[in-house]
Amino acid sequence: MKHLLSAAFCALLPFAASAATFTPTFITSSYITSGAQGTQMYRADLSGIGLSTIASIKVTDSNSQTGGSPGIYSGFDLDAIFLDVDGSLATSDDRYYGSSFLYTAGTARSGGYPGPSTSGGPMNGASSATTVDTAFATLDAIDAVWFGTGSVTLGDGGSLTSIFSPEVALGASLYLFVGEVSGDRGENVSGQITVSDRAPPVVPLPAAGLLLLGGIGALGALRARRRA
Predict the structure, then answer these.
(1) What is the rounded CA–CA span in Å between residue 189 and residue 103?
(2) What pLDDT digit, counting tens, does each position of 78-95 carry?
(3) Any idea of the CA torsion for 205, 207, 209, 214, to the nearest 10 degrees?
């Protein structure tokens, strides 16, 4: 019970304001095809950015209302996201992938797409408006299929945060790779990604949890009075 209470109270603490963030500059790296499908890979050099570790990377849809299709697809289909030591896609044993994800679906466009998404959520690759279906959206592999498996779609203004636990230390070289299915107009990653040395805050407990903590606190105070 002691450990559970400690975790619950920590969940209520605000996110430290001292977190350092950095917006990387991307170059077009490679266009990787699989049959008729394709993923545009973008690469950013993270050396010299002033951070000593990387704890999270947040990708946000541009909300440009361009690209994509009517209905559930905004056009920003994130295929893969990872950190890489040598900056080469030819090697894979030096990559770091996120251990967990925070997801906000964003706004689905009106239109004629029949839906729902093939993974069951409001967007392709999502099992709910706040949850990535990691079995469907394999963000640790460059393997997406348009309107199919391998990627997660961000609705207009949607976001995905990749959390690295343990944190990744910045050595002499470190690169960020982001893959977007097709890379069409309105769907590139430039200026939409934030690298941080802190993980996002823990989601606060729901009202029921707060009431439970309040009840436990009141019970403890009553016992203390009785002992006095």
Answers:
(1) 17
(2) 899 999 999 999 999 999
(3) 120
